[in-house]
Amino acid sequence: MELKNGNGLNSxxxxxxxxxxxxSGLGLIMNLINLMKGDNGFDVYAxxxxxxxxxxxxxxxxxxxxxxxxFYLFVAGCLINAIIAYIQYCNxxxxxxxxxxxxxxxxxxxxxxxxxxxxxxxxxxxxLKCEGRNVYQVLWNKxxxxxxxxxxNMSEEELYKVLGTxxxxxxxxxxxxxxxxxxxxxxxxxxxxxxxYLMDDDAKCAYExxxxxxxxxxxxxxxxxxGSLEGxxxxxxxxxxxxxxxxxxxxYHYKNGVAEVRWEINPDGRFYSDEDGFGMTNDKEIxxxxxxxxxxxxxxxxxxxx
Length: 306
Fold this sequence. Notes:
alpha+beta
């Protein structure tokens, strides 16, 4: 179930975190009582368990702040508890517990797998989503390693909702109007803002224009005027063949449902120079011009002639 919450995490997941804090707090109190009793002298197991619970509680609080350090602390607390339980399990003897030997040993063994089980269960719970992002994606501040592959399974309406979240309005993303109810989502890549997605605010649909790997998604061989490329170097033609959008380019404002696109396939020599001008080449800027509709489909072939 997908529920919105202030820290970007699923509301059910937040409720689980608070419950864990409450129950862990009770466990902490019990451990402290055992430490203070000290009937059989100093209890190193109770001390270790107390430290583990404190670490886990700290982890829950950091998770509520949507910080990945919280996950690491939670895992560390559970692993410490599991190690303590295993050491206790190995040191239980018949002489110490008599007829209760089997019961105590069984409880210690369960303590090991209970701690490991908590980690596994939590990793599944972290798949709960809020505004299209699960807990992993929020904590590590990323949507997808290769979002093009993930979005291929999304409907145009679902993609529109995802792009409407705060993540796509903050760096490295930015949004701007293209007119006629169209919004362009840009992504900063290698210092340049590249056109990634088109959002049709009237239809509440979104379309990918360029992939994260800087390749034009909707452009096919039939969308390119290959004859106009005659005389260009093999390097430049290869860029077109790969649909690479690696140099600065952009989408202009819509007019009557159509927008012009400038696809730079070779940059000016200054592109390769540093701040002091070193490294500049004799390259001349080469652009292809085409046009797309509201869904990003090419309606006018890309050609050298504007």
